[in-house]
Write a structure and sequence with these properties.
Layout lengths: L1 H34 L4 H12 L4 E4 L6 H11 L4 E5 L6 H5 E6 L4 E6 L6 E5 L6 H4 L3 H6 L1 E4 L2 E4 L5 E6 L12 H4 L4 E4 L5 H9 L16 H11 L6 H17 L7 H17 L7 H17 L4 H14 L4
Parallel strand pairs: 1-8, 1-9, 2-5, 5-8
Antiparallel strand pairs: 3-4, 6-7
Helix pairs in contact: 1-2, 2-11, 11-12, 12-13
Length: 322
Amino acid sequence: MVTGFVAGKGQVEALNLRQMNIKKLEQIESILSEVVLGKELEIKLSLACLLSKGHLLIEDVPGVGKTTLVQALARLIGFETSRIQCTNDLLPADIIGTNIFVKETSDFKFKEGPLINKFVLADELNRATPKTQSALLQAMEEGSVSHEHGTIELPKPFILVATQNPFDQIGTHLLPESQLDRFRMALYLDLPSREIEKKILLLPDRDRSFLNLDPVLNQMEFEGYQEEVLNVKISDAIADYALDLLEYARSETDEGFLSSRAGRDLLFVARGYAFLQGRDHVLPEDIQTVSPYVWGHRLGGHRGVKYGSELVKGILTHVKFS
């Protein structure tokens, strides 16, 4: 009898803790919805990606709120943003850091670049040259960076959020497949509806409003949530569904390619999305909701995230959960 009572109490406490966590995350979503209007789904997906310890890519034309969303999100979850403004003349050393000669000691000292941080915003990533873009590959995959005198381990968690402009804009360079595959998710914000755009036009100083936001979480709390997401259960049936989608996409589409990493990323983000719904298990609906955004940039390639997302939505109509 005593054992049963203790187990029941533990289950109630776990449920209460989960509900409290969800309320804080819902608060973040609510605040972000006031900063970036009309993008409730994209906000939830962004949170799901970061909760799954993934890197995020946001593609769209300038002026739709990409950078504002990222900076506001970082502030609300307790992170200081290290920003890299990508340009055609940006060099790898500008991102990673460089060795500086110290006259007093007659020795070189490594001065860290903006990449050495927990939360990094790479703004307009595809304006940087391919050589500079490649400086991020090791950081995104291994959580470390190499320079001429050794290797530096990046702080944990290391979160990279990048924005990019559509490929047909002047001064852009295509991201290679190897880099696209390292982004767990990609979003396309798109223009708002007429009603929402009218509200945006009437808002004063909208782009700087995130500076007044107070954090809802601290870094330790958010990292705790990331660990909880890993405990969200995935059944064999859900795993088989993900495999069915992978196999169909590989055999029936000529666009891009879905690696095993793409399959793993789908399940990781689905866990994060289920966690935001207050569940401890993944449903088929979670897979269907997040897959266009986990696979869209991988299949869209140079045609863009929006094009690839529509391809994935078509795949979902042909592959049923069983």
